[in-house]
Each structure stands twice: as C-alpha cells, then as structure tokens.
C-alpha cells in the first residue's frame, strides 16, 4: 500500500502541475507515461527498490475520449478496452475477452464487472461490504467520477443475481 500511495500522490502532483502550467487537464496517456517513467527509473538504477504495484488507470480527455491503461511494476503500460489485475486475473481477462463488446452500455458494463468479480474473487458471495464500485462517465458535458453508495451497490448485486435478498426475521 505504501508504494501505491507514493505513486498516487506523485500522479496527483504531476496532474496539478500540468493543469497549473497549461490551464487544462493533463491527457490521460501523458499522465500514465509520466508515472510509468518514474516506476521504470526505480527498476533501472542499483540501490533503489522498485515499486511493487500494478495499476489500472481509467480516464477521459478531449483528445481520445475514454481510456483504460494497465501498468506493471516495471513501468510498462498498455491500453485496453477492458482489463483486470490481481488474483485470478487470467480468469477475469478470459471472461472480459469473451463477454465485452464495443457497443456495451454503461449498465451492461457494470453488470459485466460484477459478474467477473463474482466469479474471480476469493469470496463465497459478494456484498457491498466486500466491494466498491466507481464509474467515470460524462453527464451534462462534464466528466464525472462517482463512487456507488453501499445501498445502490446492493441493489446492483441483487439485480445481477450475485447476492440473494436478506432473509426476513421472523
């Protein structure tokens, strides 16, 4: 976690410096490349411990629209339409490859994410206590980032059939 926190703070500072200097948001790939250059520098020079973190970066910019990038601890990064990292990522990638389509709606994308997580997480059932869902979308011409409330997430889990309704007390 400490490696991730340092890199997240570095990314925030880089994005803020860019915004201050150019009066516009930093392009997503430029931010990813900058952070990955930092990660790669730590693998190149002796005496420095590499950052042991992979990231998924999701964002939107005026040049390329919505983008998703995955980086590994060495500083390599690549663009994806759908991706997964962490435990059971091969199974998740396989499911995404099979079920993802280019014209997917926002609601279908959320349901696909829930399906992939339910099949690949080391848990018997998904609940809003074990899961957090956030979305990046455009609303009213502005880019929005929204973390789903536990109540909304519970409803999504019920809708997807991953979680069963709580039994009523007698």
From TrEMBL:
One of its GO terms (cellular component) is proteasome core complex, alpha-subunit complex. InterPro entries: Ntn_hydrolases_N, Proteasome_alpha, Proteasome_alpha-type, Proteasome_sua/b. Pfam families: Proteasome. The keyword Chaperone does not apply. Keywords: Proteasome. One of its GO terms (biological process) is proteolysis involved in protein catabolic process. PROSITE patterns: PROTEASOME_ALPHA_2. Signal peptide: none annotated. It comes from the Eukaryota. Belongs to the peptidase T1A family. This is 20S proteasome alpha subunit C1. It comes from Perilla frutescens var. hirtella (Perilla citriodora).
